[in-house]
Each structure stands twice: as C-alpha cells, then as structure tokens.
Specification:
Number of strands: 16
Number of helices: 17
Structural class: alpha/beta
Strand order of the largest sheet: 3-2-1-4-16
C-alpha cells in the first residue's frame, strides 16, 4: 500500500498508509481465484465472506462490498487498518503458495473508505435499517472495546436491546487509547462506533462497572437477562528491575493513553502534557512497542531505541510496523536486555544499564531462549524509558464479581468456545479471557459470545 514519506510522517500524527485508489484495488481484486473451498474465510476470526466482497470490488460495487463485509464484521474500516491479515486470511490464501496472496486487508480498508466517502458525498450517515427488536430480554455489555462493540452489534442484529457500559469517557477501548492516530485515526473509530449505535445499541460512558456500578446487583435486579464482559487487558507489566520507580519511566499503556485518549500530542491546546526526553528507550518488540517508539519520535525525541532481548526474527510485531519504524529512524538494539535503570540526584532517568544476550535452545513459546553474555554490561544514555512488555487482565471488575472464576493470571475462565463463564448468563471474551491478543481475535470472541447468549436465551424461552 502506498505510504507517506518517512521524513514527513515522522513529524506528525497524520495517517501513514494512504490506501488504494479504485484502479489499484480493482486490479488487485481481479487476482482473486474465487476458490470453491474459500480457505481465506476459514482463516478469518469473524468469518467475513471474503471472495464475495472481492468479486463486488471487481465489479466496482464498493458500497455493496462493504455491506457484504458488514454481514459478519461491524468494523471493517478498523480491521482493514490494524488486523494482522498476513497471519490469518492472507496466510491461507491459495495464491500465497505461489508467492503473493490477495491483499485482503487493503481491499477491506478500501471498500470501507470508499463507502464512507460516497455516503458523505450524498450527505447521508452510515445508519442502516435499524434491526427489528424481536425479544424482550435486555443484555448488558461491559466494555466498549472491539469485543464489546462486536458482541453488542451482533446481539442487536439478533433482535435484543443492548446496553454497553464503558469506564472511560469515550468509546473504542484499545482502538482509541492504545493505537496511535497515524495508524488508526479517531475519526474512523468514531464512524464505526456510530454504526454500532445506529443498530440500536445504547452506550453509556464514565460508568466503571465494579466501582460506580455493582455487577452483582445488576444481575440480581433482573433488568438484564444476560451479560458479556469485555474489559480488556489494562494492567501493565513491568520489568521488576531497579530504577523502575524513577521519573521518566512509563508503562506503554500510560504513555499511549496520555497521547491518544487525553490528546497530549496536542498540548498545550489540550491540558494533558507528556514529557518526552531527547533520548528514549522502548523495551519490547511487539506492536505496542512499535507504536510507543513512533509516538515518542513524533513528540520530539531526537533518538529512539527499541531494546529487545531476542533477534529480529523473533520480534512479535507485524513486519509492516517494524518496517515503518525503521524507515522513520527508530534504532533497534537487539539481543539486549535491561538490567537496571539509572537515575540522577533528582530521581530522574539518566540511563539504562543493559546486558548483551545470545540465543540458546527454544523455550515454551517456540522461540530461542535469550541467554545473558557474562561481562557484557553497558550503559545506554537515555532520559525516558517506556516499558512495553505486555499487559495483564484488568482487575477492576473481575475481582468484585461473586462466583466468577479466574485463572492464575487473573483472566476470566471460560468453559466453551462461546465464552461461557462460571456464572450462568454471563459470557466473557477478548483480552480479559485470553490475555493480550489482536483486535480481530477480540472481535471473533465477541461474535461467538453473542451467538452463545442468543442460543442460551432462546433455550430459556423454549425455542428450538
């Protein structure tokens, strides 16, 4: 996909990827073999009818293509931007065996953007025909992230009244506070959320279920026949090394939330400042680490290092995001592990002591285990450290629900593929159940939970 010049884009928060034009999109769509067995659909966590929407692109029917996607996926403009298609639908594309799979993600983004532009040109909103309310039961959804939004949209389409409760002051969860503007513009999130609301879903923000609203009382009141918990993984992990309490050390969660949800990148236009020094170290090599490094660069850092204890081959971030970071001048310090963070007399970060690593035998993850090289310690001169080594389950709700079983990591234990929990009538999905994963995986969990809720309520009504 065409991208903006690295020198230009590294100084602002405007979207990096430019998208396809109709000529490129139709040419790419014509490569599709329209396979009988449709392996790409099996590779999609939400079962988008991929060959069908691609054939509509070939015909130039872009709005119809978007409608076809929305039969299974309520957030196509988001998925087309942040879904790791290369390890899912595109990985199993028949043409991948010959070298280059169909660019399914790019085409999904293209049709969503084209349909949106066409509606705006006609001065129409994105509202579909509101689904008929078929059932009296009301369902509560906790969390307005990708899992919650998907579950709510599917339940509304089944015919239920749905209320989403969101703790933060805006919707989207990780889509809004975790992913930077240059990868996923907030206007896209707003538009996709408006689509979900147009289905009849009610969204209430600034309600922290578990704190300002009691989940146990919510269930006991009888107002809600069922509930879905999709509160995500909002508990940041740290390195547990000396110096992590110094000023200038952030979790990636805090850093990105300040920059995204609190608009710190627009300071002083907005009141939330974020201090970024001249030399920044980001510890970790996943997509969140790439996001944090690229945000630090845009906020004025002169040098940004990604510090990772394994080699490039083991980096968990998408190849596209690694390439983008590298093009923008992010420096990779691979086979390097932090030992301690050093501070000055004012308790501010002045450096990070690191040790060089080498790869040994594979560990339980299948990746070669990093082994410390004795005597290889050195100091990396930095004044800001951002820790991006993963997140744990958000405990705000889960620790306050009677009878809700959790695993040893604090994630909600589920008992079937639809996400049924230890409490009858309560389902869970996304990062709160699986641990940190992808947006599309969370959406798939939300979709399966909606089906589970519908089947359970139908059985209670005595329907087949």
């Amino acid at each position: 996909m065409p991208r903006r010049d690295p020198q230009e884009r590294g100084t602002d928060f405007v979207e990096v990827a430019l998208g396809l034009d109709p000529e490129l999109a139709m040419a790419e769509a014509e490569r599709c073999l329209n396979c009988r067995h449709k392996p790409c659909v099996s590779g999609c966590p939400v079962q988008v009818p991929i060959p069908e929407f691609i054939q509509l692109v070939v015909q130039g029917e872009f709005e119809a293509a978007e409608a076809k996607i929305k039969e299974k996926n309520s957030l196509p403009a988001i998925c087309g931007r942040v879904c790791p298609q290369e390890t899912q639908c595109e990985e199993v594309c028949v043409l991948a065996r010959r070298g280059q799979p169909i660019a399914i993600g790019m085409l999904e983004r293209f049709v969503a953007d084209q349909a949106s532009a066409a509606r705006k040109a006609r001065k129409e909103d994105s509202s579909p025909d509101k689904p008929e309310k078929k059932y009296d039961e009301r369902v509560a959804v906790i969390g307005a992230g990708p899992a919650g939004l998907t579950c709510a949209a599917d339940l509304a389409n089944y015919g239920y009244e749905v209320d989403i409760f969101e703790a933060l002051h805006d919707t989207g969860g990780v889509l809004r506070y975790g992913i930077p503007e240059f990868r996923l513009p907030k206007s896209i999130v707003d538009e996709e959320v408006e689509y979900v609301k147009s289905l009849g879903v009610n969204i209430t923000t600034n309600v922290a279920v578990g704190l300002t609203m009691d989940f146990n009382e919510m269930l006991a009141s009888g107002e809600y026949a069922a509930a879905f918990i999709g509160t995500g993984a909002g508990l940041p992990y740290f390195l547990n090394i000396p110096g992590e309490n110094l000023n200038g050390v952030y979790s990636a969660n805090e850093f990105l939330t300040r920059a995204n949800l609190m608009k710190a990148y627009l300071f002083p236009e907005y009141d939330t400042p974020i201090k970024v020094g001249k030399r920044v170290a980001v510890v970790g090599a996943g997509n969140v680490a790439m996001d944090a490094a690229r945000v630090a660069l845009r906020l004025g850092a002169e040098e940004v290092y990604v510090v990772y204890r394994r080699s490039r081959e083991e980096m968990p971030a998408r190849h596209e995001e690694i390439e983008n970071a590298e093009e923008e001048g992010i420096q990779f310090r691979l086979l390097t592990n932090p030992a301690r963070i050093l501070g000055d007399e004012r308790f501010r970060v002045r450096g990070m002591e690191c040790v060089k690593m080498e790869l040994g035998e594979p560990d339980s993850s299948g990746r070669r285990r990093p082994v410390e090289i004795p005597g290889s310690n050195f100091t990396l001169e930095v004044d800001t450290v951002i820790v991006a080594v993963g997140q744990g389950a958000n405990p705000m709700l889960t620790t306050r629900v009677d009878g809700l079983e959790l695993n040893k990591w604090g994630n909600i234990t589920t008992y079937d593929e639809n996400g049924a929990t230890s409490i009858p009538g309560v389902w869970a999905g996304g990062d709160i159940a699986t641990g940190a994963s992808t947006v599309i995986s969370a959406m798939g969990a939300g979709k399966r939970a909606a089906l589970g809720i519908h089947e359970w309520l139908s059985a209670k009504r005595g329907e087949a």
